[in-house]
Amino acid sequence: MDILTCRDLTLGYGEQVLVEKLNFQLPRGAYLCIVGENGAGKSTLMRTLLKLQEPLSGRIWLDEEAAAGGIGYLPQQTQTQRDFPASVREIVLSGCQARGSWHPFYTQEEKERAHFCMRRLDICQLKDCSYRKLSGGQQQRVLLARALAATDQVLLLDEPVTGLDPKATLSMYELVEKLHREGISVIMISHDVRAAAENASHILYLGDQVFFGSSDAFAKSPIGQYYLSKGGRHA
Ligand SMILES: Nc1ncnc2c1ncn2[C@@H]1O[C@H](COP(=O)(O)OP(=O)(O)OP(=O)(O)O)[C@@H](O)[C@H]1O
């Protein structure tokens, strides 16, 4: 059973075509890393999947059960968002709003869900702290808990380790891997090709060339070998 399907998907803005006639199917329970050149359309693809943007043509969709279970989204952070004046608990709770109809107060069930997500990501001790006073690594953990509060099925993560030091980066990768092992499908944009090839089950490479397949197949492909032999990062 597939969780994500792309059919002849063409993405871009006006006359500018970024991705042309993309076709792939991602199996349920997969961990997909989207890698590729700057400006290749990785975030545009994620925004299209979230229905925040229309494709130029073609379709991309999640299977019905996954869509009904909610989508957890961790967007790229701007400086203003890093200074957001709220407690950790409030931020994680706000993820529950993505799951159902809006109401003025959080229900007991939502409060329990937020607490469960904080426990899963080991941030209960931070729950009353101000989000803006946390380290970058702690903030990303909080945002991952928020994304998790929104879903039982699928997490979309847009460059979740950008700006983190090596230790916090490793810890973030371990958390994502743990959630994946627990049955959540993961779709993550990454700039670290080596880490992507090591951690993910599938790779989508966007750029002058396009690749979709298993991480093993990527490592053996010309584009995979090119980046992996160069140390794994691109500009
Ligand atoms: N709303 C928009 N209107 C017009 N052009 C846009 C819009 N959003 C993005 N673009 C352009 O589309 C291209 C692809 O952007 P996108 O953010 O999807 O790339 P990306 O692969 O995620 O890049 P990066 O690796 O740098 O984050 C860029 O040239 C960008 O300037």
From TrEMBL:
Is the keyword DNA-binding assigned to this protein? no
Residues forming the ABC transporter domain are 4-231
Q: Which UniProt keywords apply?
A: ATP-binding, Nucleotide-binding, Transport
Identify the SMART domains for this entry: AAA
Q: What is this protein called?
A: ABC transporter, ATP-binding protein
Q: Does the keyword Translocase apply?
A: no
Species of the source:
Shuttleworthella satelles DSM 14600
Q: Describe the family membership recorded for this protein in Swiss-Prot or TrEMBL.
A: Belongs to the ABC transporter superfamily.
Q: Which domain of life is it from?
A: Bacteria
* Pfam families cross-referenced by the UniProt entry: ABC_tran
The record, for SUPFAM superfamilies, names: P-loop containing nucleoside triphosphate hydrolases
Instruction: Provide the GO MF annotations for this entry.
Output: ATP binding; ATP hydrolysis activity
